[in-house]
Design a protein that fits this description.
This protein has helices at residues 2-19, 58-76, 106-116, 133-139, 168-181, and strands spanning 29-33, 38-41, 50-55, 91-98, 125-129, 148-152, 158-163. With 182 residues, it is of the alpha/beta class. The protein has one domain (2-181): Glutaredoxin (3-Layer(aba) Sandwich). It has a 7-stranded mixed beta sheet with strand order 2-1-5-4-3-6-7. Strand 6 and strand 7 (158-163) form a beta hairpin. The radius of gyration is 16 Å and the shape is globular. The termini are far apart. The relative contact order is 0.21. Residues 1-20 have low confidence and may be disordered.
Length: 182
C-alpha cells in the first residue's frame, strides 16, 4: 500500500512539474543552426505552432535522438506516413545544450553532433552554448538526464510539455496539443 501511495504521489508531482510551465512564454534562447547561423528561439519560430525539444546532458541527448525519426516523419516530412496520420504545418527543432566545462570543447561537440546527425535532420538541430541554469528554472526543467519537449503556440507561449524518450503516447499527446491549437 505504501508503494502505491508513493507512486501516486510521484506521478502527481511529475504531472504538476510538467504542466507548471504551460501558459507562460518560452524564454528567448540564442541558439544556432549546425551551419553556425544564429537562430533565436522562439523569435525565429513565431507565427506558427512549434515543437521544441531540448537536451542538456549526454544522456538526455541520447533520449532526444529517439524522437528524431518519428518527429521528422510526423511534423517535418510533408506526407502521410506510418507515424503521421495528418500533415502538420509546424516548426520542429531539437536543441542540444552545451554548458559548464563542455563549453571549452563546444566547437568539437557541435561538429560531432553534425557528423552524427542525418543530413535531412540537420536543418532542424540547433545548439546553444552557455549558461542554462536560468532557462532550467524558467522552463521548470527538473531532470537533467531527460529531454523536454515544448509545444509553442504562434506567439511563443507554451501550450504543452512532455519529457523523456520517444513513445507513441507522448507523440500522440503532442499531436493533440497541436490539433487543439489549430
Amino acid at each position: 500500500m505504501k508503494k502505491i501511495i508513493v507512486f501516486l504521489l510521484f506521478t502527481a508531482v511529475s504531472t504538476a512539474c510538467a504542466v507548471a510551465q504551460t501558459g507562460s512564454a518560452f524564454p528567448n534562447i540564442a541558439t544556432k543552426k549546425l551551419s553556425g547561423q544564429s537562430f533565436p528561439v522562439p523569435d525565429s519560430v513565431k507565427g506558427k505552432y512549434s515543437v521544441v525539444g531540448i537536451a542538456f546532458s549526454k544522456k538526455a541527448e541520447e533520449s532526444l535522438k529517439t524522437w528524431y525519426q518519428p518527429a521528422y516523419q510526423t511534423f517535418i516530412q510533408k506526407k502521410k506516413t506510418v507515424f503521421a496520420a495528418e500533415v502538420y504545418n509546424v516548426n520542429t527543432y531539437f536543441v542540444a545544450v552545451v554548458t559548464g566545462t563542455n563549453k571549452v570543447a563546444a566547437g568539437d561537440i557541435v561538429k560531432a553532433i553534425q557528423t552524427q546527425t542525418q543530413k535531412e535532420l540537420q536543418p532542424y538541430v540547433l545548439t546553444y552554448v552557455g549558461e542554462f541554469t536560468s532557462y532550467k528554472k524558467t522552463l521548470n526543467i527538473v531532470e537533467n538526464d531527460e529531454p523536454y519537449f515544448f509545444v509553442l503556440d504562434d506567439k511563443g507561449v507554451i501550450t504543452h510539455v512532455t519529457k523523456g524518450a520517444y513513445t507513441a503516447q507522448k507523440l500522440a499527446e503532442v499531436e493533440a496539443a497541436l490539433t487543439a491549437g489549430e
